Amino acid sequence: MPLQIGRTMKIFTGNSNPKLAEDISAHLGQPLGKSEVKTFSDGEISVSIGETVRGCDVFVVQSTSTPVNHHLMELLIMIDAFKRASAGRITAVIPYFGYARQDRKAKARDPISAKLVANLITVAGADRVLTMDLHAAQIQGFFDIPVDHLTGAPIIAPYLGSKFENQMDQVIVVSPDLGSVTRSRAFAQMLGTGLALIDKRRAKANVSEVCNIIGDVTGKICILLDDMIDTAGTICNAAKALIEIGGAKEVYACATHGVLSGEAINRFRESPFKEVVLLDTINIPKEKKLPIFTQLTISHVLAEAMERIHEELPVSTMFNYR
What separation in angstroms does the CA of 239 have from each of 193, 197, 234, 247? Predict the structure, then answer.
């Protein structure tokens, strides 16, 4: 049964990205809901909700970022708490969905962990999911509840469009691998630029080798686009190849999710990037913030999407581009 418009909207957050939740609440003009999410000495998670949610339209903002399992458990337990407190509807707002890269069986006896996590969120009691830039769009089908899937490119494109307003004829979007071609093509159309492709071969997880550059990048300002930057091996190798092999003038990177694990920060320090543009789906600690990093907020986009969900309006109209 659809939620009746007029029911109270309440926003809560776990510990993964409270700053983003606060910014969303500010855009919506209401305070965050009172809750406490803490960890016992043995590692178990405790959730305490400090106000009534009976019959309310509850939104739980929580990225399943590092530490992934801990933040996932926070989300599940919070959802369960709201379900048992008779919330009218519970929307899991997951700006970054962890385990998204485990979306298929790459070899015999592999798990499909993304499907398992989707099941856990559903069984915990979530009624719908709001997320951004899933690693594979088909993960939406892993859920047995509605999923609103937003994209980060329409937030990044205006920033870069303004930055290179008088140099757009020198700009080219580069896909760092075959899997990002569709995303990169759409991004290039937004900016009105050409498209190039890095042909790479991956020997093992988190290790890649650039094989060829498809497209003319000589003397160009190259913008590498991906949905996430994890260990940064792929994107840093691509940047070096664009400069050393392709003869590119400058290289920029942009991604929705800045996972930045392992040797990512050291690789960026040694990379030729002029600027790396990330969104704030994941909280980046101070020790990982480099001078070349620019972080744009998604709070206004999530706030609008949440308001539309609350008022039973379509979310798809938010990203209609010519």
Answer: 18, 12, 9, 11
The pTM of the full predicted model, rounded to 2 decimals, is 0.93
Span 271-276, average pLDDT = 98
CA-nearest of 99, 88, 98 to 14 is 98
Is 92 within 8 Å of 121 (Cβ atoms)?
yes
The answer, yes or no, to whether the previous bond of 176 is cis (omega within 30 of 0) is no
Structure tokens at 321: 């581009």
R_g of the chain computed on alpha carbons: 20
Please, which residues have CB within 8 angstroms of residue 1's CB and are 6 or more apart in sequence?
none
Domains and CATH numbers, the chain: 9-150+299-319 (3.40.50.2020), 153-296 (3.40.50.2020)
274 in catalytic set: no
Q: How far apart are CA 206 and CA 224, in angstroms?
A: 18
Q: Is the pLDDT of residue 321 over 50?
A: no
Question: Looking at the DSSP assignment, which residues form a beta bridge with residue 252?
Answer: 223, 275
**Phi, psi values for residue 316, rounded to 5°:** -60, -25
Catalytic residue among 115, 200, 249, 274: 200
Q: Tell me whether residue 320 is exposed, middle or buried, using C-beta atoms within 10 angstroms of its C-beta: 0 to 12, 13 to 18, 19 or more.
A: exposed
Q: What is the pLDDT of residues 193-245, one digit of tens each?
A: 999 999 876 556 655 565 689 999 999 999 999 999 999 998 999 999 999 99
Show the CA angle centred on residue 301, arms to residues 93 and 147, nearest 5°: 40
E strand residue ranges, 162-316: 171-175, 194-204, 207-214, 221-229, 250-258, 275-279, 293-296
* Predicted local confidence at residue 1, as pLDDT: 42
Segment (H or E) for 132:
strand 128-132
